[in-house]
Amino acid sequence: IFKFLGAISVDLGQDRIKPYLPTILTPLYRELNSNYAEQDPTLKNLSQEIIELLKKLVGLEAFSLAFSSVQKQANQKRAMRKKQRALQTVANPDIAARRKLKRHKNKAETRKRKIESLHPTYKAKRHRSHALKDLAMVE
Questions:
Q1: Where does the U3 small nucleolar RNA-associated protein 20 C-terminal domain start and stop, copy by copy (predicted)?
Q2: pLDDT digits 0-9 by tens, 19-64
Q3: For an engineered disulfide with 47, which of 8, 28, 55, 104 has Cβ 3.0 to 4.6 Å away?
Q4: Can you tell me whether residue 99 is helix, strand or coil?
């Protein structure tokens, strides 16, 4: 898709690409700023190359305006999600408590896995799954 975006932008030319610049930059910006574990470095390099190509194609000023608008929009979305999560904690405490329990359970499992990887002879006690008991709310 990134190669397609680059090819379309070169094909359209300097004047016709400007209205579509924020739309093209959005996935490129998302790929550059992502920090998930299984990230493909070739995608990051490709997005960087296409950004450089766009910079040369439309000029630094137009590119900067479009890029800053994409950045601003991404930051607004991030802040909105954070705010909604905080409001949900207040509005629905039972859902928040369930989420918190799940997070703590995952944290304990991760800790056990880490200990087992560091000390192969050590076997941590695993939580046995009791389907109905796991679904019940802890008071």
A1: 1-116
A2: 999 999 999 999 988 877 677 788 889 999 999 999 999 999 999 9
A3: 28
A4: helix
Structure tokens at 48: 């960087």
Under 8 Å between Cβ of 35 and 9:
no
Which tens digits make up the pLDDT trace of 67-90?
999 999 999 999 999 999 889 888
Question: What's at 121, amino acid-wise?
Answer: T
Q: Which two tokens stand for residue 23?
A: 């739309």
Structure tokens, 21:
């610049």
Both tokens assigned to 41? 């470095």
> If we measure between CA atoms, which residue out of 57, 67, 49, 56 comes closest to residue 12?
57
Count, residues in the chain: 139
Letter for the amino acid at 120? P
